[in-house]
Amino acid sequence: SQQGEEDPQALSIQEGENATMNCSYKTSINNLQWYRQNSGRGLVHLILIRSNEREKHSGRLRVTLDTSKKSSSLLITASRAADTASYFCATDASYNTDKLIFGTGTRLQVFP
Amino acid sequence: NAGVTQTPKFQVLKTGQSMTLQCAQDMNHEYMSWYRQDPGMGLRLIHYSVGAGITDQGEVPNGYNVSRSTTEDFPLRLLSAAPSQTSVYFCASSASLNEQFFGPGTRLTVL
Questions:
Q1: Looking at residue A86, what is its pLDDT?
Q2: Is B82 on the interface with A (CB under 8 A)?
Q3: What CA–CA distance (Å, rounded) separates A19 from A83?
């Protein structure tokens, strides 16, 4: 079964608003990553957070990690229409660091 | 650099046919993976490789074979196509698992 589950499945917001997506996973991890997928395209890596980190920033992205709750959140601030895409979390289980398992994704729609 | 390339972009097969999806990367990455993406299911790992000559199964390996004879290439073989294998297939490569680079995908329809 898949390691990660994103919540919500779909999110619609207006430009300028913040978008928050959540990811829950099942086993202990070394790292958690977030990827973005534009419609019909391959995934693109956004950011990685290690299991000993609690928060990380990259431009308008803010990622948090709570290993006690086995959850992460991705915040996109001041969203733009170009942020419209699907967002996936991915984890490598600490017992098997050779596999990267993806969640089911959140579809974000940003209206101009 | 071309990055990760996949061929073909689109393919239609009849049930029972076999075919090979090609994946190549020019970044000298050791890790390569195959995923399938179905609506509402996200990406599921089919097979992966941590280097030439080494492959292992992912979450949904049944009906697929892989081999890794070179660092650059990681073909995925469908042995006897079934309608349940209709999906979009993505190949990815990375130096470690910390940042995977994805190909553009192959859309496969099995009739």
A1: 95
A2: no
A3: 10
Using a CB-CB cut-off of 8 Å, the residues of chain B touching A88 are: 42-43
CA of B48: which chain A residue's CA is closest? A99
Query: Which SS3 state, helix, strand or coil, does residue A49 take?
Result: strand
Interface touch B102/A48, C-beta < 8 Å? no
Contact criterion met (CB < 8 Å) for A104 and B40: yes
**Going residue by residue through chain A (112 aa), what tens digit of pLDDT does each one get?**
456 688 899 999 999 999 999 999 988 889 999 999 999 899 999 999 999 999 999 999 999 999 999 999 999 999 999 999 999 999 987 666 678 889 889 999 999 9
Tokens linked to B104: 């553009």
Instruction: Return d(Cα A91, Cα A95) in angstroms, integer.
Output: 12
Q: How far apart are CA A89 and CA A79, in angstroms?
A: 19
The whole-angstrom distance between A83's CA and the closest CA on chain B is 19
Say what the pLDDT of residue A94 is. Answer: 67
